[in-house]
Amino acid sequence: MNTLTAQRPTGAFVGASWAALFVGAVTYVTGLWNAQMALNEKGYYFTVLAFGLFAAVSLQKTVRDRLEAIPVTGIYYGLCWVALGLALLLLTVGLWNATLTGSEKGYYAMAFLLALFGAVAVQKNIRDIALFERLNPASSEADA
């Protein structure tokens, strides 16, 4: 028996989640913009960020779907894990072989991880708010 309960995330957590996503992504992209590397390298790192963000959100959605008894095929669930692992591996290999200083490598790694965390938290908040509003329609109307 699967009973759904919902709590609305606090405004502070919602704000912190969006801030983590934007600070991580903007910091990462700003670093790429100002980097002294070839355009194809910048494209590689930007693509890894976009791929990682998509993979993290997709994985969070499939995990949440399974928790809410929404059908998710095993192959898609597995592909989400593989995609997130590949994004992390591609960033790791790229930074390991890059001719950047250690502090620059750490900068990109931390901005990347912050953006991934933010994307997962934002997706979680969106789902929590939607579930809360679906289960508590009177509360949603009072907020409007």
UniProtKB/TrEMBL annotation:
<keyword id="KW-1133">Transmembrane helix</keyword>
<keyword id="KW-0472">Membrane</keyword>
<dbReference type="GO" id="GO:0005886">
    <property type="term" value="C:plasma membrane"/>
</dbReference>
<dbReference type="InterPro" id="IPR038972">
    <property type="entry name" value="YiaA-like"/>
</dbReference>
<dbReference type="GO" id="GO:0006974">
    <property type="term" value="P:DNA damage response"/>
</dbReference>
<feature type="transmembrane region" description="Helical">
    <location>
        <begin position="107"/>
        <end position="126"/>
    </location>
</feature>
<protein>
    <submittedName>
        <fullName>YiaA/YiaB family protein</fullName>
    </submittedName>
</protein>
<feature type="domain" description="YiaAB two helix">
    <location>
        <begin position="76"/>
        <end position="128"/>
    </location>
</feature>
<feature type="transmembrane region" description="Helical">
    <location>
        <begin position="43"/>
        <end position="63"/>
    </location>
</feature>
<feature type="transmembrane region" description="Helical">
    <location>
        <begin position="12"/>
        <end position="31"/>
    </location>
</feature>
<dbReference type="InterPro" id="IPR008024">
    <property type="entry name" value="YiaAB"/>
</dbReference>
<feature type="transmembrane region" description="Helical">
    <location>
        <begin position="75"/>
        <end position="95"/>
    </location>
</feature>
<dbReference type="Pfam" id="PF05360">
    <property type="entry name" value="YiaAB"/>
</dbReference>
<keyword id="KW-0812">Transmembrane</keyword>
<feature type="domain" description="YiaAB two helix">
    <location>
        <begin position="13"/>
        <end position="65"/>
    </location>
</feature>
